[in-house]
Design brief:
2 domains, uronate isomerase, domain 2, chain A, alpha/beta, single chain, 378 residues, globular, 9 strands, 12% strand
C-alpha cells in the first residue's frame, strides 16, 4: 500500500512528477511577504517544543481547533504546551482533505522525519520525537532547510530595523533578510489610533506632521531609510480599493480632522487613501521598488474575540467587494504620469482573480517583463 506522504504526494501524473522533482523542488524560496520576527532570526531562537514553533501565533491552526469545539484555554489560554499540542492533534483528525492537514504532515515529515499520522492517539510519541529533533533545529536551521533565498519581513515605517542591521552586519546567513515597507497605519485616517501614530511617525522623522506635505516628507524619509536597509518592496493591506480624486487642499482638510480624532466619512477616507497611495506608488517607482496590494480582507469580525485577544487571532475573513472599477482608476491615476511601479496584486477572494488579471493586464509594458503580476493570497 502506498504511503500517505511518499515523495510523489499530490503528484498524479508523470509530467507533474517531472516538473516538481526536476525543477520546482530545487528552486529557492523568495518570501517577500513574511511575518517571521527578525529578532528571532537574529537571536537564532531555539524552541523548547513543537507547540512553540507550530501553535504560538498560528491562527490558521486556531481556527480549526475552535471549529471542532476545542475550548479557548487549549488554544490561546493558560493550558500547558503539551495540552495544546494534544488538542491540536485531536482537531486535525477532523481536517482530512483540508490543506492544513497536508501542511502539518509535510512539516512533520520534512523537518522532523516523522511519518506517523498525527492524531490524539499518536500525539504523545510525536511530541517526544519532534521535541528531540528541535534540539538541533533553531530558527536559522529551519530557514536553511526550507531553501529560502530571501525573507522580506513585514515592517512598519517607524520600525528601527535594528535586527535587520545586525543580521546584515554579521554576514553569517546565506538567506538575505530584508524589511518590507508596510505603511497601512499612515494611509488610513479613519483608524482610531491615526492621530497617535502621526505623532510617532513625526517623532521618528524629527518633525511635526501637520499637513499632507509633512506626511509625504515623513513617508519619503522612511522609504529612504528602508531602502538603505535593503528593502525593495512595499506591502499594502487594503480591504477594498479606494478611488476618490481630490486636491491636496481637500486632503489637508481631512488630515486636520483626523489629527483631532474627528469622524472621517467614507468619502473622505477614500479620498485620503487615494491621494497617499498614489504618492507612495510614485516614490516606489523612483527607487525601482515593487509594490504589493493585497485586497478583500474583512478583519476582527468577532468583537468579543477581538476584545479578549486582539488582532491576528483567526478573526479575519474574505470580503466580497467589487474591485474592477476602482482598481482600474487607481492604477490609471498612477500610470498617467508614468509613476506606476512594478505591482503584485492579490485578493483573498479567489473570485477576484480574473478581475485582477484582466485589469492588471491593461498596465503591462514599459519594457518591464511581468510588470503587473498576480500573487497568491490565503
Amino acid at each position: 500500500m502506498q504511503k500517505f506522504m511518499n515523495e510523489d504526494f499530490l503528484l498524479k501524473t508523470e509530467t507533474a512528477k517531472h516538473l516538481f522533482h526536476d525543477y520546482a523542488a530545487k528552486l529557492p524560496i523568495f518570501d517577500y511577504h513574511c511575518h517571521i520576527n527578525p529578532k528571532e532570526i537574529w537571536e537564532n531562537k531555539s524552541y523548547e517544543n513543537i507547540t512553540q514553533v507550530w501553535l504560538y501565533g498560528d491562527h490558521y491552526k486556531w481556527r480549526i481547533m475552535r471549529a471542532v469545539g476545542i475550548e479557548e484555554k487549549y488554544i490561546t489560554g493558560d493550558s500547558t504546551d503539551y495540552e495544546k499540542f494534544v488538542a491540536y492533534a485531536k482537531a486535525l483528525s477532523y481536517a482530512i482533505g483540508n490543506p492544513l492537514y497536508h501542511w502539518s504532515h509535510l512539516e512533520l515529515k520534512n523537518y522532523f522525519g516523522i511519518e506517523e499520522t498525527l492524531s490524539e492517539k499518536t500525539a504523545p510519541i510525536i511530541w517526544e520525537k519532534a521535541n528531540a529533533a528541535l534540539k538541533s533545529l533553531p530558527c536559522r536551521k529551519l530557514i536553511e532547510m526550507s531553501n529560502v533565498a530571501l525573507i522580506g519581513t513585514t515592517d512598519d515605517p517607524i520600525d528601527t530595523l535594528e535586527y535587520h542591521k545586525l543580521i546584515r552586519e554579521e554576514g553569517a546567513m546565506k538567506t538575505k533578510v530584508v524589511p518590507s515597507f508596510r505603511p497601512d497605519k499612515a494611509v488610513d485616517p479613519a483608524r482610531a489610533d491615526f492621530a497617535e501614530y502621526m505623532g510617532k511617525l513625526g517623532e521618528v522623522c524629527g518633525m511635526t506632521i501637520q499637513t499632507v506635505a509633512d506626511l509625504k516628507c515623513a513617508l519619503a524619509n522612511r522609504i529612504d531609510f528602508f531602502h538603505e536597509n535593503g528593502s525593495r518592496v512595499s506591502d499594502h493591506a487594503l480591504d477594498y480599493v479606494p478611488f476618490v480624486a481630490g486636491t491636496e487642499a481637500e486632503v489637508n482638510t481631512i488630515l486636520a480632522k483626523a489629527l483631532l480624532s474627528q469622524t472621517i466619512t467614507t468619502t473622505e477616507r477614500d479620498m485620503f487613501r487615494t491621494h497617499i497611495i498614489k504618492f507612495l506608488a510614485a516614490e516606489y517607482n523612483k527607487r525601482n521598488w515593487v509594490q504589493q496590494w493585497h485586497l478583500a480582507s474583512i478583519r476582527d469580525n468577532n468583537k468579543r474575540l477581538y476584545k479578549n485577544l486582539g488582532v491576528d487571532v483567526g478573526n479575519d475573513a474574505i470580503m466580497d467587494v467589487h474591485l474592477a472599477k476602482n482598481l482600474a482608476a487607481l492604477m490609471n491615476a498612477c500610470a498617467e504620469d508614468d509613476q506606476l511601479p512594478k505591482t503584485i496584486l492579490y485578493s483573498l477572494n479567489p473570485n477576484d482573480n480574473y478581475t485582477l488579471m484582466t485589469v492588471g493586464g491593461c498596465f503591462q509594458g514599459g519594457g518591464i517583463p511581468g510588470k503587473i503580476q498576480l500573487g497568491s493570497a490565503w
